[in-house]
């Protein structure tokens, strides 16, 4: 069962990474896949009460791959960890199926919570380079988190999140399919730029209104 799951993981990485040529190449050379192999074993030990062995294996995996996944974290099927160096996934984090995570991502806590301390990531979620998702909330299915975003609150399904502190931007109010598979970290909406454009339009409209009123006053004086 574990082997079949790992085979699905490897095939998914092969299909989604344009640099991957064969499933065997993924098995032998991809550190993100190796991190999943270690984690599946460490998580089994963790669930069966072998906490020291589970943690020891996860720390060994960290040194081997540069990816730190607590053995208590729950990870779904077909996770693609791309260039995974520096990824940290906390003990109570949960990740759904068909997600993509890039290097430098943290699924962590805020330091203020007890019990469930880390985020729950839905299905088909893409988390881009350097993003930080902190706290015990849910990131909805089919969402995208932009590079270097700092997410501190719940994200609705089918949303794009960018910025520090992150803001949620709906994409035309519609589902965006499976963003985890399109691997697009560039073409994301910029809510700050959008707000500046709205402010610029309002300033221009007010300037035009003031100019018309000034012209009317000038005509009245004549």
List keywords for this structure.
single chain, 222 residues, alpha/beta, six-stranded mixed β-sheet, five-stranded parallel β-sheet, 6 helices, 15 strands, 40% helix
Outline the structure in words.
The chain is of the alpha/beta class and 222 residues long. 40% of the residues lie in helices and 17% in strands. Strands 3-6-9-12-14-15 form a six-stranded mixed beta sheet. A five-stranded parallel beta sheet has the order 1-4-7-10-13. A four-stranded parallel beta sheet has the order 2-5-8-11, with no helix packed on it. A hairpin with a 4-residue loop joins strand 14 and strand 15. Helix 1 crosses helix 2, helix 1 packs antiparallel against helix 3 and helix 3 packs antiparallel against helix 4.
